[in-house]
Write the structure tokens for this entry.
Amino acid sequence: MPIDALTPQTPLIRHFRAVAEAHANTPAVTDNSRQASYRELLDEIGQVAAYLHAQGLQKGDRVVLLLANSVDYAAVFYGVWAAGGVTVALNTQSKARDILNWVKHSGSRWLFMDARHAERAAVAESLDDDTRMVAVAAQAAGDDEAAILWQTIRSGVAEWPEVALEAQDLASIIYTSGTTGYPKGVTLSHGNLSANVSSILQYLELTAQDSILNVLPFYYSYGNSVLHTHLAVGGSLILENNLVYPHRVIERMANERVSGFSGVPSTFALLLGRVNLEDYDLSGLRYLTQAGGAMAPALADKLVAALPHTRIFIMYGQTEASARLAYLPPDQLIDKRGSIGIAIPDTTIEVRNSDGQVTQPGETGEICASGHNIMQGYWGDPEKTAEVLIDGWLHTGDLAHTDADGYLYIDGRSSDMIKSGANRISPKEIEEVIQEVEGVMEVAVIGIPDEMLGEIIRAYVVPKPGSELDKMSIQRHCKSNLAIYKIPKEIAFIDELPKTASGKIQRFVLQEKAAK
């Protein structure tokens, strides 16, 4: 039976069911302990959905997931949807205090948590009496009621409830800290997610023959889209949950002959800095995608040189846009070097000045976007919602300009701009130049307080293993490529940059470090 094309009007869970039935024997998700075919995943989703429905879960009820990437994660996530619930996936590195705050803020009455999570006991002790915890993957032993409950769910009937889901119904809440450090719950409807997945499938040209080695956490918007896009076409996901051993990741990519791999800039900096990709047979790798922060053109150049036969997609997005907003077609990597590309299909992007007018090519303004993928708002926070959703347009806070062909180039984030003397300086521009220096693995640039200039520029540089970098060589390269006021006054060499679990550099941590 042919599978209908995915549209914004079709909830992903409904589309997935048709795909899973058509690809029943295809491996869907493989983690470090087991592999599940689409038929097996379909049954596990049914078990979770049937149990939640029988326990009185109502359409729109929120369910928290605090789970590492696994077959179980996919089963619980889609099981919540099948029961009509709303998924609230949380960062697995969070501490009990934040977890409890998010559970309370979202009004969730169910919490599916890894049995071995270090914070489980602390969370269980302080959890409200009317919120039930399920310890996922635990053995039914002892007096652990949460563990027994999971075994009950997994041994139950696999029956999908009859729940009428519409495009406008809330599907997920994703908590994001944003640049201010205050958590915000991004609310995404079933239509938002379906629209974004549909757009991504179009430009990546994903099919059931595609497979991906995934290192991105599913609770993160980028990883979330990797999960949904592959399950939407009958593709296969092979999970690798950390990058502690980069050689192992590349070796597994070669052995499994995956067709895709996705990462943030630091992912590729690590792989290129620690592994000689030429030593591995990566001929099966059809494409790579990069998002989660701007990639320096010099790093992109190295990636192209290392994988000349692989299509490389530079992408841009926000959680508020269900993940993706723009992409650079691989055949434009050279001609549009440094660009984040053009709007994804069925999405409109404009760069606007402070008066709300569309900027001219070369003029910096704010990226604004509209489309079916744009969030409904921030959970329980109409004021913050009104600040970014204006007349149907998402105001991203990201600064950019276009060229004569309409291709987008990020100039920075308004909150990251360094104000030195009379100049407003983008740290991204300086980072791109320093990244060109041989021996630099990663770099982050911030402004630190200065009595005379307001701020001066400091660069934090992570050298490649075995390299002999020094401050003077970096400053000489900057002097040859940057205006004098953009040359870092201070350069600090460190072993690693502070990052979120998704790989984004935490500039505020560097700011705090500099203030001490």
